[in-house]
Specification:
Number of strands: 5
Low-confidence stretches: 1-35, 49-105
Shape: globular
Bound molecules: zinc ion
Radius of gyration: 40 Å
Mean pLDDT: 78
Helix content: 40-55%
Structural class: alpha/beta
Number of domains: 3
Keywords: Membrane, Transmembrane, Transmembrane helix
């Protein structure tokens, strides 16, 4: 480190023996007042002068600031960075803690313990329906083990975990290549005429879409909600269970003031239809064939209009096909869907329903 005047000034107060100099100037002995021996007094004064002068000289020579003291103090007592400071490792990336999600900090795979595998119950549709979630919980569908269901106690909790993902994947008018921040998401929900609770009553996604969502959120440094962090853990758990194949993640709300038992049943059944579409290529191919070959052009246009009014992006053809299938064949509650909503009579709707379900 370069030495300059400032270094010297900073070091002196702590090391220079200034106090010794002050003491040396203090009266060291009573001065004799006898007039009998002026010669002795003069001699004493002369002696004092000599001793005093000697002390000053000695201080200057032996006790004053010394270059070697300054150098030593500089190398050991300075706050300045030391030459070996670069050896202290500073992690360039956050270090993931197994089993712990660091909100918005890491996109590393979540490490799951073996015990996590036994806490994902496998239930059939009726058992899932009977489950009343006091807290959000992950299940696996017995009829199709590539389908996972998040059962939320309420629409509010579902929305807090799933709405930002919905906006990215399939909501009309929203970007497909970046994740909305909280303000933009609130704006999107309000512009759709919804609340966070009613943006969707149920959700369905491919695992690969959820992977993309978290990757984009990481890239865009969007702070995730606790619900979204919870979703990330459930998604990682499901991923570990099924291995390296795509799977489906659905979500449903519990019975609450806005959702009665019949609605919950219809939501679950509707989402399970999507689960089959995502995970059974032969069923997806069949659905596409029915859409192309059984539906008329006017009927397809009618469904596109209906789905647009429900907030789905009509530019996404697969979403149009998949949702039409789920509403026609898997939504047994007329409040969510009926023939009148697509300007169709019940007889024709039954024909289309039967066509979709002939794959089972
Ligand atoms: Zn749907």
């Amino acid at each position: 480190m370069p030495e300059g005047p400032d270094d010297t000034v900073r070091i002196i107060p702590a090391h220079a023996p200034v106090g010794q100099g002050v003491h040396a100037l203090s009266p060291a002995a009573p001065i004799a007042g006898s007039a009998r021996s002026r010669g002795i007094l003069v001699a004493l004064i002369l002696l004092l002068v000599v001793v005093l002068g000697g002390s000053i000289t000695a201080w200057v020579i032996f006790a004053g600031p010394r270059p070697e003291t300054t150098a030593a103090a500089t190398s050991t007592g300075s706050w300045s960075p030391q030459p070996n400071a670069a050896a202290i490792a500073v992690p360039a990336e956050p270090i993931g803690i197994p089993g712990v999600v660091q909100a918005g900090l890491s996109n590393a795979p979540v490490q799951r313990s073996l015990s996590s595998r036994v806490i994902v119950p496998v239930l059939d549709e009726q058992s899932l329906l009977a489950h009343a979630a006091p807290i959000a919980r992950l299940f696996r569908l017995r009829e199709n083990p590539l389908v996972f269901i998040l059962d939320f106690p309420s629409l509010d909790e579902q929305g807090a975990a799933m709405n930002r993902l919905a906006a990215l994947v399939e909501k009309a008018g929203q970007p497909r290549d970046r994740v909305l921040d909280d303000a933009a998401l609130a704006r999107a929900i309000s512009e759709a005429g919804d609340t966070a609770a009613t943006y969707y009553y149920g959700h369905n996604y491919r695992a690969s879409d959820i992977d993309r969502f978290f990757a984009l959120a990481w890239r865009d440094r969007v702070t995730l909600t606790p619900g979204e962090e919870w979703l990330r853990l459930q998604h990682a758990t499901a991923r570990e269970l099924v291995g390296d194949v795509d799977f489906a993640v659905l979500s449903i709300p519990g019975v609450e003031r806005r959702v009665d038992a019949s609605m919950r049943a219809a939501i679950l059944h509707h989402e399970i239809g999507h689960g089959h579409f995502f995970t059974r290529p032969s069923f997806a191919a069949h659905v596409n064939r029915v859409w192309r070959e059984v539906f008329t052009e006017a009927e397809r246009a009618s469904f596109r209009r209906f789905l647009s009014s429900e907030g789905y992006d009509a530019q996404l053809e697969e979403v149009m096909v998949n949702e039409t299938m789920a509403f026609v064949a898997f939504t047994p509650d007329r409040r969510f869907f009926n023939a009148g909503m697509v300007a169709m009579d019940d007889g024709r709707l039954q024909v289309l329903r039967a066509a979709f379900l002939s794959a089972f």
